Amino acid sequence: MSELFRIAIVGSGPSGLSAAAHAATKGISHILLEKTDHLSDTIFRYQKGKHVMATPSLLVLRSDCEFGPARRETVLERWNADAARAGVNVRYNAEARSIAGARGDFTIALANGDTVRAETVVLAIGTQGNPNLLRCEGASLPHVQYQLDDPAEYIDEHIFVLGGGDAGIENALGLIADQAQGNIVTLVDRSADFARAKEANVKALFAARDAGRMTILSETNTTLVEPGWITLETPQGAVRHKCDRIIARMGSAAPRAFVEAAGVRFTSEARSAFPQLTGAFEGTTPGVYVIGALAGYPLIKHCMNQGHDVVEYIAGRTDLKPADEPILEAKLKDLPGALSVSEWLEFLRSRVEILHGLSPLQMREFLLDSEVKAFRAGELIFERNGVGTSLFGIAQGAVQVEIDPKDSKVTVPIPQGSIFGEVGLISGRRRGATVRAGEDCVVVEIPRTATLKLMAQVNEARETVERVTTERQILQIFKSGLTPADLAEVLPLAKTLEIKAGQPIMTEGEEGDDLFIIRSGSMVVEKSVGGKQVFLSYVPAGSYSGEMALLDGGRRTATVKAAIRSQVVRLPGEPFRRLLAKKPALLARMREDVASRRKINAFLEEKKDSFGGVVDMYSSVASFLIDQGIGEATDVLLIDETLCVGCDNCEKACADSHEGLSRLNREAGKTYAKIHVPTSCRHCEHPYCMTDCPPNAIQRGPDGEVFISDACIGCGACQRNCPYDVIQMDRPPPAKPGLLAWMLFGMGPGPGEPDAAWRDKKAKAQPERAKVAIKCDMCIGKAGGPACVRACPTGAAIRVSPEEFLSVALLERGQG
Amino acid sequence: MAGQTQRRKRATHEGFLRHRGFLFLKIGTVLCVGVTAAYLFQDQRLPRGGGTLLGYGLGTAGALLIVWLALLGVRKRAVTNGYYSLKAWVSAHVYLGLALIVIGTLHTGFHFGWNVHTLAYGLMMLVITSGAVGVWAYATLPKTLSDNRAEATRKQMLARIRSLDEALLDAAQPLPRIDAEIVRLSLEKTEIAGGYWQRVMQNWDNCANKAAIAQLQPVLAGATGQQAAVLRRVDALMRDKADALAQARKQIHITALLEGWLFVHVPSTFALLAALVAHIVSVFLYW
Ligand SMILES: Cc1cc2nc3c(=O)[nH]c(=O)nc-3n(C[C@H](O)[C@H](O)[C@H](O)COP(=O)(O)OP(=O)(O)OC[C@H]3O[C@@H](n4cnc5c(N)ncnc54)[C@H](O)[C@@H]3O)c2cc1C
Ligand code: HEM
Ligand code: HEM
Ligand code: SF4
Ligand code: SF4
Ligand code: SF4
After folding, report:
1. What is the pLDDT of residues B212-259, one digit of tens each?
2. Hey, what CATH class is A334-482 in?
3. Ligand 2 center to residue B52 CA distance, Å?
4. Hey, is the C-beta of A382 within 8 angstroms of any chain B C-beta?
5. CB-nearest partner of A783 from B7, B141, B155
6. Strand bridging mode A30-33 / A90-91
7. Which residues, in sequence order, are bridge partners of residue A567?
8. For A144-252, CATH number?
9. Ligand 4 center to residue A731 CA distance, Å?
10. Of A645, A785, A786, which is closest to B258 when you measure between CB atoms?
11. A619: which of A195, A456, A674, B178 lies 20 to 30 Å off by Cα?
12. Would you list the domain boundaries of chain B?
């Protein structure tokens, strides 16, 4: 029987290593299992020379390994030394495949067939996951590899790269970059197009193929690997090629399945869900602990602290205060009531409905992201048309919502326990009403990302938010003195639907009288005129559609389809009509809307007869813009190429107002009918870039700007997530001499982004700065607004919001 | 949280010539009409020219206007944080600059001679004329610029030429030395841009790639078998390169036209400022 360890730690990242080092220091019997042949593979795989950042700086480090901001190499060296000094018992090339048993005697099976036994297991495997393996005969031969560290290593080889995602394409391009290496490279992908990869990569790939420098085989599968050969199933049949090396980049499987197989449940089905854990990091299988990025803490410092803490907990300690205690204390210290941190956590949890389902550990993490605020009676909490996407929960007192823009006396109360501010959260648009404290109250303000995390983790929270949102959104859209009681009949029949881009919610000529509320995303309205689909209008989130058939009966007069992935609420027509009968004000209001929509339709149809070409142009420009993602933008830079003289003053102004780096690539991007959509941030309603940012550095500013704060650690996740390719990773160049010094004495490189040579020369004199994510911040905080637009001499550069631009204004442009 | 800022974010979609419904055209016209009226209705018995009261007035106005017009060069480059619109500046620059023709001319009272005063006047007219050429360029060329580039960036145009060069080098490997010389001519001697006049005049007759294609034709005609296949590929690549060169050069040509007039406009602005100082100083010295 093999040795029974007290603790087995799987994964030697910052969390696992820190746990092992602490166990070693405390003299607890342990084993650290690492899949690769070195410690901390995630950090090992950072780009060479990357500056590793140690945020949040307020958090004290509690670990037997050292850590501070430093280069990747330094961090790794230090950890190797720390591990050796502490006497960590590490076993390399030991990939855990399964965990069986119960507290006191777990058996961990390794990939090579060995087993390891331990009383408790700490899972610290991070979120990188395992690469999807090639599944065919011969897949385990040594010339099949899943990573490419240095493309310059291979010379005169026949190489097959499997997988047409960004990783595969980048690897393939890397291998042919230097022709002198003489590699013959083939990229193999299962699909027909390269839909998963970024456009820039796909373009470069086709360019390389057209230049005869590599071969692309699409709709192709690998069926057999033999030493020196590969057999592929192509649409034309099976072919056998000479092959010295296979690089498989077919994505990776999230580690979730592995964790679940060990009996640890996750909080929900959502992709973003985390394992269900106690305050001591213990999962739903007693004796199995989960820490680090996998537990929802992606910053290295958090990881290391948890490694330390989990060992203390396993060793039986119960009074340990988490390391984030001082941060929470600082957050809560100015509030009335003199409660301790844990009392506050309990106070909030028990009083705010959507927090009821949280564990103490989740509560802590939740509060790190959120703010608790006290307001006096009558004090303003937020204003109508203000931009803000956070959600508020009322822990004490009540608030008053001023629903009538003209009369601040008309208010609706929201009681303790409930939430408000949810509409901005769902649709990313401006606040629809002013909210004041009705009496002295304590509220918790939850940023959008934290709310989404909360909704993914706790089902009750999601349901509550959705219910309240639907109700309030309907009240807000129709106003007209409706109260929640009026909706009692309609609401239970409301259904929330997810609509894919391009999918219609109603089709012209079809029967139907349901009403649709656009909750998130946006819709386009089209009508067939003279046999062609003509774009009629754009319906942003927070409006409704389907009212014509509802009011006047008859068939649908237009097709309404999603411009981007959207969420709509369907209200059945019959009960809604009864509601209208009871509420003449609402009916009158809807009639008004119908009349103005009718006018546009009539206008277009009339134009169509006299200026068919104009309407076609209008319609096709609108479709082009929607294809360019304008439908999910809140504010986008367009360039009118009938005016643009190519002076690049817009780029120069951008660089000069942002530490010398332009966030705009004027020339790149698509053009249609002389409207050019340059490569620049669209400030999406639901920014993709925000999704996986470890330090939550991407936020929305008061004017709707999506910007990156100083907290950025340069991990590059946002760059990969942005579908519009507008984020670059770069370091700000050294400061330039002023404008007058350049104009009068020719000092420095002049306006705009300094060239590489000047940067290199100057940079030698200064310490190198870390590469961080750089993108348009819409000149946040600058009173004059975006510099690109201000600095354009001809008026070619304009910034627009989709509602404004995708309107009849576009039609007028076509005429003038 | 509630602090929504009141920043100005949007510019209306109007070019610099039409800015705010031709506001500055209107102002400029009113100015010209007013000044002309004052000139015509001033006391007929007095002499005309810079020495009169109206002359001093118009001279001062003209000089201030010139200084302000010249400051556009600074405004364009000083990216300050407050609100301004360079488009509005340019719009005013164009129309008020044109009004200067009337203001300046009436100031002189049509007294011209071979002196520093008339030099200043001449330079002013040169600056204004070149400005008008610029407006013509700005109004007509952007469309051709956009059509020519067809979504390609300058970088991509150069990259396309470079990758064709690489393909040419590859394709030429099996060729005998003497034929490879033709490829080398295209690879090593092709100049993309050339000098400024060449750019403006679009004179690419001495293009090495063009010469190489011409030299290749007799060789291609005489070749057979494997050799002919290689030469055909080389020929096709060089023709692709000719297309790529034509696109890049047209882009360079239009850009040269869009910037060229500034090489007159800006230096003569400096000369004008110097002459103006001399004029004003001399006027006060010889008083
Ligand atoms: C490019 C990039 C830059 C970043 N920059 C920073 C930064 O500057 N500052 C910062 O604070 N954070 C940064 N992060 C985030 C941070 O690196 C991770 O969140 C952190 O490493 C997570 O630590 P962990 O211990 O949970 O897991 P990981 O560090 O991912 O470690 C997991 C370890 O487990 C091993 N393993 C996995 N599965 C098994 C198995 N079945 N059996 C055995 N071993 C296994 C892996 O090989 C790996 O060594 C960055 C992330 C990336 C991707
Ligand atoms: C502060 C501004 C100016 C002042 C005070 C000024 C003053 C004068 C005076 C006093 C005269 C009369 C000289 C004479 O009759 O001998 C004169 C003439 C003239 N000025 Fe100006 N001037 C000014 C600006 C300008 C400008 C902007 C121009 C045009 C670029 C200009 C061009 C002329 C010309 C061409 C004459 C006619 C010279 C002549 O009569 O022989 N002046 N100016
Ligand atoms: C005496 C009068 C004028 C002076 C001193 C003057 C001066 C200048 C200066 C200094 C610039 C800045 C160039 C740069 O930095 O790039 C400029 C730009 C320009 N000027 Fe003038 N100018 C005058 C009259 C005019 C007139 C009459 C016109 C038009 C009819 C004109 C049209 C322009 C245009 C179109 C620009 C380019 C703007 C840009 O691209 O930024 N100018 N002028
Ligand atoms: S500043 Fe205006 S004219 Fe100049 S390149 Fe930019 S968009 Fe074109
Ligand atoms: S960076 Fe990309 S994803 Fe993020 S807001 Fe801008 S365009 Fe949208
Ligand atoms: S802003 Fe981007 S690069 Fe910076 S930490 Fe967030 S995801 Fe990573």
Report:
1. 999 999 999 998 888 899 999 999 999 999 999 999 999 999 999 999
2. mainly beta
3. 10
4. yes
5. B7
6. parallel
7. A498, A520
8. 3.50.50.60
9. 25
10. A645
11. A195
12. 2-140+262-286, 154-260
